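In keeping with the milestone schedule agreed at the kick-off meeting, the structural modelling team has produced records for the first pair of proteins. Each record is given below as a sequence line and a C-alpha cell line. The laboratory manager (R.T.) confirmed that both were archived under the project's standard naming scheme.
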Amino acid sequence: MPAPGKPTLRATSEQTILVCEDDSALRDVITRGLREAGFTVVAVADGGSAVRASVTADAIVLDIGLPDSDGRDVSQAIRACGVSAPIIFLTARGRLVDKLSGFSSGGDDYLTKPFAFAELVARLTALVKRASREDPIGHDGLILDPAGYQLRRGDRTVSLTPTEFRFLARLLHAGGGLVRRRDVITAAWPPGALVHDNTVDQYVSRLRRKLREVEAEVTIMAARGVGLSLK
C-alpha cells in the first residue's frame, strides 16, 4: 500500500480528483495524500457512484477490480456521459493485454499496484495540466449503468449484455461522430477476438431494437465499409 509521504509536486489550483477504490484503507491513503498535495478529492467505493460523481471531476483515479462492476465498463459509462476528464486506472493486473484493454475503454493512464504515491501525484498533475474540463454532452438523455448493464432513458430501462454495453458506450462516447468498425470491435470484444462483419451487424440490429424500447430519438446508422454512428 502506498504511503502519501511528502509529494514534491503540488496542484497549482484546486482541481477535483474523483477516487474510486473499494479497498477502504487504500482509498483513505490516496484521499489523504491527494488532499495534502493540494487537490480536492471526492472518494467513492463502487462504479455506480463513480459514474454519478464523474461530471464534477477534473481527473479520475479508477480501480479496475470493483465490487459491482469492472472498472473498464465504468470508464465506458463515464465516457458515454460525455465526461472527458482524464482517467488513471489502478490495478494489480500488469500484463500488456490488460493495459491495452484499459486504454481502449477510455483510460488515459495506467498504474500497477503497488505503486509509489509520488508517481500517482505526478501523473495526475501532468494529465490535469493537459486536459480542460468540458461540460458533459451525453446523447439524447441516454444513460448507461455499468453495475447492472442497463440502458436508461427517462423512466424506461432495458438490459444489455456486456458486449452490447461496450458497443453502445463506444458510439455514445463519439457524440454522434463516426466510429470505425475496428474501433467498435476493439472496445466491445476481448483483445484478439475474431469478429466478423455479420456479427457486428447482428449487434447493430439488437441495439437498434433496444434503443427503440427506451424510446430513444437516435438510432445506429451504418456507413458501408467505413463505420457506425448514432443519429
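The second protein of the pair:
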Amino acid sequence: MAMAVVLMVLMEVSAGCAALTKPKGNEKMPLVFQADFEDGKLDDWQATDPAAWRIEEGRGGKVLSLFGKSDYKPQVRSPYNINIAGDVNVSSFVMELRMRSTRPYNPNRDLCVFFGYQGPTRFYYAHIADKADNVHNAIHIVDGADRASIAKTRNRGNSWQDGWHKVKLVRDVDKGTIEVYFDDMDTPVMTAVDSRLKWGKIGVGSFDDTGQFDDITLWGRKVIN
C-alpha cells in the first residue's frame, strides 16, 4: 500500500513537471514578464509615439496593434515604431510571441523585436522581413550610430503571409550568441554573436510598417539598475 502511494505521488510530480516544461533554451531561467493584452491596458509600455498604438480585437481576444506610423525622428538611423515593455531589464533571455503583419505584400515589409534596449540610441533588434538584402531581414545593433547588421547567418526571408506567426529569440550573454526563430522553433532563421550591450529591456514594433502582437512571454535573468 505504501509503495502504491509513493508511485502515485511520483506520477503526479512527473505530470506537473511536464505541464510546466519551458521552451528549449530557457530551462534554468524564471518567467519575468508576460503580456496577453486582455486587460486592454498599455500603462506599462513606452512607445516612441503612443498615438500609433492601441488595443484591438484579434485571435479570439485582444492584441497589441501598431496601426499607424509614429511621429518620431530617431537621433540615428533606426526604427521609427518602437514600443518597450515596462521596467524589466534582462541579460540572457528567451522570448516568445505571436506577430502578424498588417501591411499588404511588399518584399521589404517588416516587423521587429527589440532587446538589450538601454535608450533610443543603444539597443539591438531583429528585423524580420519577407526578403533579405543589406538591411532587411537581419539582426542589427544601434550603438550611438546608425543601425548596423551584426547577422552571422540568416535565411533569404520570412513570409508574413498567412496571418499570425510564432517568433522566438534566444540570447546567451555569456557566449554572446543571439538566435531568432520564425515558426520553426528548432532551427534559427538568423543568428549573431555580439556582447556590447549586456542587458536591457525588450519590445516590439517595426521600422516603418504596421502589425499586431500578442502572447509575449519572457524568461530571463533580471538585471537591477
